Amino acid sequence: MLRNLFIIICSSSYILCSAQIDSSSKLSFSGYGELYYSYDFSKPENHEKSSFLYNHKRHNEINANLILLKSNYNSINTRANLGIMFGNYAQYNLSAEPSWAKLIYEANIGVKLSKSKSLWLDAGIMPSHIGFESAISADCWTLTRSLLAENSPYYETGVKLSYTNKKEDLNIALLALNGWQKIQRPDGIQRPSFGVQVNLKPTSKFTFNYSNFIGSDQVDSLDSWRFFHNLYVQYDINKKFWNPCWS
């Protein structure tokens, strides 16, 4: 049964301002905006759709799901990202975070640990290493998010050690995190959480990915652990005939 009707009013990714006037520039700025109209045939009186949804949350009104302003810095040995956001995604998905954190899409800095190898140490608020969807609809295969995406972390806070080989077909990352989609660690939780990601691209069309999370979102006194595993395979069909990504 058809439950929701979506109409994209505006979904665009565009450069607001760029410092990359020449090829030697290291700093860039960008922005993304997404307006939508959604109608839920169950007609919720408070205009909020199901509690397990965090994107395109509002019923029967024109609204903004994500307005994002980003800056990126990249050099040979250092990199940094800062993203400030507004909209339904920020309002609902970060509702449990302190007020100062609800506007942060990402804020991280990284340093290269080896001159000859692509070995990086990054710290801060980062996109999640779990899943293949994000809050940015233009990067996803469909407008609506899968239940996997809506019920697994979109972001994480901690430290990530990552390695990419010379062929750039293998990436391995080890993470120490504040918890399950947490910027500020909640009271009563002292122990860290951990994650692993292995991403393999044997050909230009195939991607194999395994990610996991080991930790807890419960207070230490309960001695509770959460184990989450995410395994997927992607195959890129010839874009001349079919492109599954809508933008």
Describe how the helices and strands are arranged:
Elements: E1 4-14, E2 27-40, E3 61-74, E4 78-86, H1 88-93, E5 104-112, E6 118-127, H2 147-150, E7 155-164, E8 170-177, E9 193-200, E10 206-215, E11 226-235
Antiparallel strand pairs: 1-2, 2-3, 3-4, 4-5, 5-6, 6-7, 7-8, 8-9, 9-10, 10-11
Question: Would you mind describing this structure in some detail?
Answer:
With 247 residues, the chain is mainly beta. It has one domain (4-235). It is 4% helix and 46% strand. The protein is built from two helices and eleven strands; from the N terminus they run E-E-E-E-H-E-E-H-E-E-E-E-E. It has helices at 88-93, 147-150, and strands at 4-14, 27-40, 61-74, 78-86, 104-112, 118-127, 155-164, 170-177, 193-200, 206-215, 226-235. Strands 1-2-3-4-5-6-7-8-9-10-11 form an eleven-stranded antiparallel beta sheet.
Features of this protein?
about 250 residues; eleven-stranded antiparallel sheet
**Strand arrangement, major sheet:** 1-2-3-4-5-6-7-8-9-10-11
Largest sheet: 11 strands, antiparallel
E-strand count: 11
Low-confidence stretches: 11-18, 241-247
> What is the total number of structural domains?
1
Structural class assignment: mainly beta
Termini separation (Å)? 26 Å
Report the radius of gyration as a whole number of Å: 19 Å
What's the helical proportion of residues? under 10%
Globular, elongated, flat, extended or rod-shaped: what is the shape?
globular
Mean of residue pLDDT values: 87
The number of helical elements comes to 2
- Oligomer classification: single chain
How would you spell out the order of helices and strands? EEEEHEEHEEEEE
Query: Strand fraction band?
Result: over 45%
